[in-house]
Specification:
274 residues; alpha/beta; Rossmann fold; Dihydrodipicolinate Reductase, domain 2; 2 domains; 5-stranded parallel beta sheet; 5-stranded mixed beta sheet; 12 helices; globular
């Protein structure tokens, strides 16, 4: 019996998330992923990325974002939200599968869904730093009356957010937890594009970005990024909490990269859970 057809994977962004995903695709580091092979990466620091992939068992080219769709069947977006369209448009026009982590930016570029539909592409959103999106999706088949998320992060996990600058909020010297935002998931994604993709993912799984409500707290007593979700539906009421260990980028949890790897392992898995 022949094995699965090999699908090629390209990674847009070679930082705290993209670098880990790339290593898991290369057989030198973790044995690779059945049925998939790394075909290309893209990075702002091309020389650094070229030096890194040179140490892989199968070195790959470092390409501009727009060329990734031509090099692979699956494009994994691990880049700043501002360049989502630069990655997504050529990949979706080519009919590729696009795995999106900057799903907050997806809310403001939802025409990409129509683009995918017209050209036979797909947009997939992994769980990222969140949990139990499958339970939220199941509840959304019925009627959900309320989805509320409370995020608590160390101040450096919120650094650089446009909302902080717009509201003249300084977190440098806070000594106790401070609620800095309350509003919809859409507003949270716009105000914290590098920090609250989890809110966008939750809204897409459930009742949408306008009805999904979010609180954000800066908490200097924490060393982890914490998210609590509360859902009331006609099928169930449930709450879920997760405390994520930050990656080398304090705005992102280590589990985010691992969620992408778990997603990729399902492509040819003989048994899929979730």
């Amino acid at each position: 019996m022949s094995g699965p057809t090999i699908q090629k994977v390209a990674i847009a962004g070679f930082g705290a998330i993209g670098g880990v995903v790339a290593e898991h695709l290369d057989p030198k580091f973790h044995g690779g992923i059945d049925g998939l092979e790394l075909a290309a990466v893209s990075a702002r620091d091309v020389k650094r990325a070229e030096a890194a992939v040179a140490g892989f068992a199968h070195p790959v080219p470092v390409l501009p974002l727009a060329r990734l769709g031509g090099a692979a069947d699956i494009v994994v977006e691990c880049a700043p939200a501002a360049v989502l369209r630069d990655i997504a448009e050529p990949a979706l026009v080519a009919g590729r599968t696009l795995i999106v982590l900057s799903c907050g930016a997806l809310l403001d570029n939802f025409d990409l869904v129509d683009l995918a539909r017209r050209h036979g592409g797909r947009i997939l959103v992994p769980t990222g730093a969140l949990l139990a999106l499958d339970a939220v999706q199941a509840a959304a088949v019925g009627d959900i009356s309320r989805v509320h998320m409370i995020t608590r992060k160390p101040p450096n996990g919120l650094a650089g957010a446009p909302y902080l600058s717009a509201q003249n909020i300084c977190l440098d010297n806070i000594r106790e937890p401070l609620k800095i935002f309350e509003g919809s998931a859409r507003q949270a994604a716009q105000g914290f594009p590098a920090n609250l993709n989890v809110a966008a993912a939750l809204s897409l799984a459930g009742i949408g970005p306008e009805r999904t409500m979010v609180e954000i707290w800066a908490d200097p007593t924490l060393s982890r990024n914490m998210h609590r979700i509360e859902v009331d539906a006609d099928s169930a009421s449930f709450s879920m909490s997760i405390a994520n260990v930050p990656s080398e980028n304090p705005r992102t949890g280590r589990i985010t990269a691992l969620s992408v790897i778990a997603y990729l392992r399902k492509v040819y898995a003989p048994v899929r859970v979730g």
